[in-house]
Amino acid sequence: MCLLLGATGVGKTLLVKRLQKLSSPDGAGDLGEPPPTRPTVGTNLTDIMAQRKITIRELGGCMGPIWSSYYGNCRSLLFMMDASNPTQLSVSCVQLLGLLSAEQLAEASVLILFNKIDLPCYMTMEEIKSLIRLPDIIACAKQNITMAEISAWKGTGLAGVLRWLQDTHRTNN
Q1: How many CB atoms lie within 10 A of CB 111?
Q2: Which pLDDT score, from 0 to 100, does residue 34 have?
Q3: What does the pLDDT look like over 52-78, one tens digit per residue?
Q4: How far apart are CA 109 and CA 143, in angstroms?
Q5: If exposure means fewest CB atoms within 10 Å of the residue's CB, which of 37, 108, 140, 168 is most exposed?
């Protein structure tokens, strides 16, 4: 199981839909227009075919207070941040600290995704790392942490996310 977490409005649902399209037999080419999405209230389960079936459980951002109820079967964690919304970064940082300190997630591999790099006002990964002191956070974490800049809207970086999922779930049962 892979958990997909992040604040409300960071693009989690669009990411899952795009990864599903990318991993489908006809998904090797153009992703096409972004599909419509609406805010997730509750949870969505989506199967991605990446050499083997990987189930992604997306939890709505508003469910943050009860995310810990879903940590039990988690082998990997995708955590999304909105790189175009500096005011939301502090909330995302607090959420990330909570996730990284959760004992049930100590063995999970973590991919931090900086989404919305297609918008003109986005902050680079280096700017965000500096602003929220991400190197210090990672140094104290038990998990193996990777970071990536993506645009779920345009599809930028999504092949790398799919590769990370394949590699992570090749070694994790």
Answers
A1: 22
A2: 83
A3: 899 999 999 889 899 999 999 899 999
A4: 6
A5: 140
Cα–Cα distance for residue pair 107/104, rounded to 1 Å: 7
Q: Give the separation between CA 26 and CA 157, rounded to whole angstroms.
A: 18
Query: How many Cβ atoms are within 10 Å of 124's Cβ, its own excluded?
Result: 12
Distance CA 40, CA 76 (A): 20
Distance CA 7, CA 10 (A): 6
pLDDT above 90 as % of the chain: 68
DSSP-derived letter for residue 16 is H
- pTM of the complete model: 0.93
DSSP state of 38: -
CA dist 131 to 86, 94, 119, 159, Å? 9, 13, 19, 27
- In a 13 Å sphere around the CA of 65, the CA atoms on its Cβ side amount to 1
Q: How far is the C-alpha of 100 from the C-alpha of 91, rounded, in Å?
A: 14
CA distance 8 to 137: 22
Residue 73, both tokens: 């079967």
